[in-house]
Amino acid sequence: MFDAKKECEKIITFIRTYYEENHLGGAIIGISGGKDSGVVAGLFTKALGKENVIGVTLPCHSKSQDRTDAQLVSDFYGFPLYNFDLTDAFDAFDQELLKIGTFTEDEKKNSTINLKPRLRMAALYYLAALFSAVHHKTYLVAGTSNKCELYVGYFTKGGDSVHDISPIADFTVDEVIALGEYLEVPKEVLYKAPNDGLSNQTDEEKLGVTYKAIATYMEDPEKVDIDTRKKIQKLHEANQHKFNIPTYRRK
């Protein structure tokens, strides 16, 4: 039986201990308006205090509802929320691309989807360095990926895979929701269908499998049907390159 209260207390202790041992000050969190960033925001607020947490929305041709939902999280936990619009920066890439050649939307699709989280990563680290200088204490960029996403490689290399501390990477989607219930993350955020805010599709639509199926597979592959098993295994194996960078070592 998953004990959300106990696990929250352990994560909070983990965060506090890491910050104390390394003489760190605060956390920068990209608040997407979804459950993962909502739970991470709750954990850091409990661990460090709202005065040491900064939330950032990073719209890039995004839905306005995401900003509204992010504000719910900020208002509930009491930390400041800044809006750092990346739309113009993203559009500048399109303008530069015209100098190289003309490409179809289908040809640009994967580059376009992955550019957005990479810009967001750059913005979060830019702001972390800025606020570290302003407040004279070190701010870390908090990761918001969960165990199901990581298992199938559902993240962008050089984008949302880059962060300084990862509090929910060992928890499945259902477990993250349970953590969120204990932390009282606003229901509109906690139970919203997960999506990347980039492609107008839910995560599960893009993956072709449910997060519940992924969690079940990780527990026991034989518990999911053969077709789903093959899809999950294919995703897991196809994305291993995101975890390991081949590096030549001199003998």
Q: What overall geometry do the principal axes of the alpha carbons give?
A: globular
Helix/strand class: alpha/beta
Query: What distance lies between the first and last C-alpha atoms, to the nearest angstrom?
Result: 49 Å
CATH topology: Rossmann fold
| Low-pLDDT runs | none
Number of domains: 1
Helical fraction equals: 40-55%
Rounded to the nearest angstrom, the radius of gyration is: 19 Å
CATH homologous superfamily placement: HUPs
Second rung of CATH, namely the architecture? 3-Layer(aba) Sandwich
Strand residue content: 5-15%
Mean pLDDT: 95
Give the spatial strand order of the biggest sheet: 3-2-1-4
Give the beta-strand count: 4
Tally of helical segments: 11
Largest sheet report = 4 strands, parallel
| CATH top level class name | Alpha Beta
